[in-house]
Amino acid sequence: MKKVVIDFETTGLSPQEGARIFLAGMETEDGKVFLGYRPGFKIFTSRLKEKNNNAKWERIKRTIENKNIIKICHNAKYELKMCDAEGWKPAGVFHDTMLLSYVNNEYEGSLSLEYLSKKYLDEKYHKSGDEIKKWVAKEKRQRRKQEVFVEPNYSDVPEEIMLPYLENDLDSTMLLFWLYEKKVEEEHAAIYEMERKLIPAVAHMENTGVVLDIPYLEAAKRNTKKKLDVLEKELYTLAGKQFNPNAPVQVANVLIHLGIELTEYTDKGNPKTGKEVLETLNHPFTDAILKFKAMKKIFGTYLVPLQEMALSNVLYCNFWQFGQDQGIKTSRFSASNPNLQNVPIRESGIVRRAFIPRPGYVLLFVDYAQIEARIFAHYADDEIMKAAFKKNIDIYETDMVRIWSKEEVKKWKETDKAKFKYQRYIAKTIRLAIQYGMGIQLLANKTGYTYAQAKKFKRDYLKTFPTVKKLMDKTKTELLRNGFVNDIFGRHYHVPRDLNYKSVNALIQGTAASVLKRGMISVYEDVILKEDVNLLMTIHDELIFEVKPDELLKHARTIKDCMEDYKTFTVPMLVDLDYSKKSWADKKELFL
Question: At what angle do helices 417-436 and 440-447 cross, to 10 degrees?
Answer without folding.
Answer: 160
